[in-house]
């Protein structure tokens, strides 16, 4: 099945998904068919800040229709922030939507975490990952650290690069959630946080939402095994 990705929100996340899906299909010795369309990060962040679910869902639905015309059999949004309108988008989309929220919730439940710190945009943090995880408590940074994390994340996602100052903000917030709030792991609640954290070198457990989502997309798109 051809995969349809809604990318561009932000550039680093799109690159991460592309590389991850190529690796997953290569490991399975399966040909990857994929088309990506570009959504605009500033437009998404504006709609997110104003809670304009319908407006962003309509943008995604139009992009999904383009993907359908290109031959895609499913669609996924390469942004956790973009999932704020997931219910409205799923209702409008001409293609099946592979939800990151559902995939991450299933993974968290399977691994038995009970208390998770979350980093990402303000909406993702304040909504505790949109309330999508019910098997564990999701803990957001305290103020004013929450505002600092949001500002650093929005700037990083738009630019597609990370500064040393932004990285320090994320790392400090993560360590505080682990040490002061007793979290079992840190949920990378923004797909661009792969720029800041690396599971192979991290000193605390990470829940890489983008990696979990990419795996779910691959499972849906790959032909069934005998």
Mean pLDDT: 93
Structural class determined from secondary elements: alpha/beta
Helix content: 40-55%
Taken in chain order, the helices and strands follow as EHEHHEHHEHEHHEEH
- The rounded Rg comes to 17 Å
Q: Report the sheet with the most strands, covering strand number, pairing sense and barrel closure.
A: 4 strands, parallel
As laid out across the biggest beta sheet, the strand order is 5-4-6-7
Weakly predicted, low-confidence segments: none
Shape: globular
SS elements, strand count: 7
User: Gap between N and C termini, in Å?
Assistant: 17 Å
* Count of DSSP-assigned helices: 9
How much β-strand is present in the residues?
A: 5-15%
How would you summarize what this structure contains?
This protein has 226 residues and is an alpha/beta fold.
Describe the protein in words.
- The chain is an alpha/beta fold.
- Helices cover about 50% and strands about 15% of the residues.
- The strands form two sheets. It has a four-stranded parallel beta sheet with strand order 5-4-6-7. A three-stranded parallel beta sheet has the order 2-1-3, sandwiched between helices.
- Helix 6 (about 120-125) links the parallel strand 4 and strand 5.
- The longest helix is centred in the first third of the chain and has 17 residues, at about 10-25.
- It is globular, with a radius of gyration of 17 Å.
Brief descriptors of the model:
7 strands; globular; 3-stranded parallel β-sheet; alpha/beta
Secondary-structure map:
Layout: E1 3-7, H1 11-27, E2 34-38, H2 41-49, H3 53-69, E3 74-77, H4 86-92, H5 100-111, E4 115-120, H6 122-126, E5 137-139, H7 145-159, H8 164-180, E6 185-189, E7 206-208, H9 209-221
Parallel strand pairs: 1-2, 1-3, 4-5, 4-6, 6-7
Helix pairs in contact: 1-9, 3-4, 5-9, 7-8
């Amino acid at each position: 099945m051809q995969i349809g990705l809604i990318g561009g929100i932000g550039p680093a996340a799109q690159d991460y998904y592309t590389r991850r899906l190529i690796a997953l299909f290569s490991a399975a010795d399966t040909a990857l068919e994929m088309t990506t369309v570009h959504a605009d990060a500033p437009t998404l962040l504006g709609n997110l800040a104003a809670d304009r679910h319908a407006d962003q869902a309509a943008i995604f639905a139009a992009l999904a229709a383009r993907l359908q015309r290109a031959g895609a059999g499913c669609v996924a949004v390469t942004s956790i922030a973009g999932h704020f309108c997931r219910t409205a988008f799923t209702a409008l989309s001409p293609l099946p939507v592979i939800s990151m929220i559902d995939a991450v919730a299933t993974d968290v439940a399977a691994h038995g975490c009970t208390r998770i710190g979350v980093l990402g945009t303000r909406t993702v943090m304040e909504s505790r990952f949109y309330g999508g995880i019910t098997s564990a408590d999701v803990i957001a940074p305290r103020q004013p650290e929450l505002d600092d994390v949001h500002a650093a994340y929005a700037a990083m996602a738009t630019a597609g690069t990370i500064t040393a100052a932004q990285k320090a903000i994320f790392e400090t917030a993560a360590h505080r959630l682990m040490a002061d709030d007793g979290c079992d792991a840190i949920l990378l609640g923004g797909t661009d946080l792969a720029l800041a954290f690396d599971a192979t070198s991290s000193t605390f457990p990470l829940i890489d939402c983008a990696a979990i989502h990419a795996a779910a997309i691959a499972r849906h798109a790959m032909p069934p095994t005998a």
